[in-house]
Design goal:
Largest sheet of chain B: 3 strands, antiparallel
Order of helices and strands of chain B: HEHHHEEH
Oligomer: heterodimer
Shape of chain B: globular
Order of helices and strands of chain A: HEEEE
Number of helices of chain A: 1
Structural class of chain B: alpha+beta
Number of strands of chain A: 4
Chain lengths: ~60, ~140
């Protein structure tokens, strides 16, 4: 049986794996509170969406 | 042929799906806003909008059709008497879906489904929370 001539380098392995890596979601600063949030989602820190209070966020001591 | 007749199946049999959707829409009628997964919200929106259309016309046949689909006379009465008349001047688009983020546990995208132009029983407390967040900045 044919065999690999030499061990693949870390660079070769990681390059191959990165080529299959997906895009990460984009976070933008919330216009209301500045905390990072995903686009088209309610802000998880202030609960605002499109200038409107959508969800109540418990302060949580 | 069922060409181009797409239905969101939600991983359920048809009876299970019908029961789920009528439950979601009944809860939307009673609670004015519901939080569920995005796929369920989209499926329930489709049904809710059709129910409002029935309610706006409001004949006896419409009422019976709504009862057969929603399975609850009290919810249909609330829909026909309270909710549908408010949308007399609106041609569709009675509900709104707001994406909330992903659920802990199964990473499912969550969404809020609510009536347009109706003050939902919503969010208070947020104002001081918001102020504290901005002052903390």
């Amino acid at each position: 049986m044919a065999q690999p001539k030499s061990k693949k380098s870390k660079s070769k392995t990681r390059s191959r794996k990165m080529s299959k890596h997906g895009e990460l979601p984009i976070a933008v600063p919330c216009p209301e509170c500045g905390a990072p949030r995903l686009t088209h989602r309610v802000c998880p820190s202030c609960g605002m969406y499109k200038g409107r209070q959508v969800v109540t966020i418990d302060a949580g001591e | 042929m069922r060409h181009r007749k797409k239905t969101v199946k939600l991983g359920r049999t048809s009876a299970h799906r019908d029961a789920l959707l009528s439950g979601l829409v009944c809860n939307l009628i009673a609670e004015k806003r519901i939080t569920t997964t995005l796929a369920k919200a989209r499926a329930a929106r489709s049904m809710a909008e059709k129910m409002v259309t029935l309610g706006k016309r409001g004949t006896l046949a419409d009422r019976r059709r709504a009862i057969s689909l929603l399975r609850r006379k009290d919810r249909v009465a609330e829909l026909f008497n309270d909710i549908a008349p408010g949308y007399a001047g609106r041609a569709g688009g009675y509900t709104r879906i707001i994406k909330v983020g992903r659920r802990m546990g199964d990473n499912a995208e969550q969404a809020i489904l609510e009536w347009v132009d109706r003050a939902a029983v919503a969010p208070k407390k947020s104002t001081e929370e918001n102020e504290s967040a901005t002052t903390a900045e």
